[in-house]
Write the structure tokens for this entry.
Amino acid sequence: MDRDLVYDVGMHNGDDTAFYVSQGYRVVAIEADPAQAEAQRKRFVAEIEKGQVHVVEAAIGPSHGQASFGSVAIPSSTRSIGKMRRCATTLLMRSRSLADR
């Protein structure tokens, strides 16, 4: 077990990842929203180059494969996998299960 490794599931704006890095942890940050993942890759470019942060653009779902990812226009933090009836945007995302290794 790596005691200096943290998984940030739902990276969103990267604030939690920034805190973990400031405390000396390495972070695997998982973010399903492609725009957020790209923004955080830009924010953490130095940490990514040093190997402190790894951004995984994927959803966490019931199985490995693909899942529908939906987000509403406001607030941006309201995102989910599953029923997408009220979502402004639905994307087909790469999905990983926590059981996958």
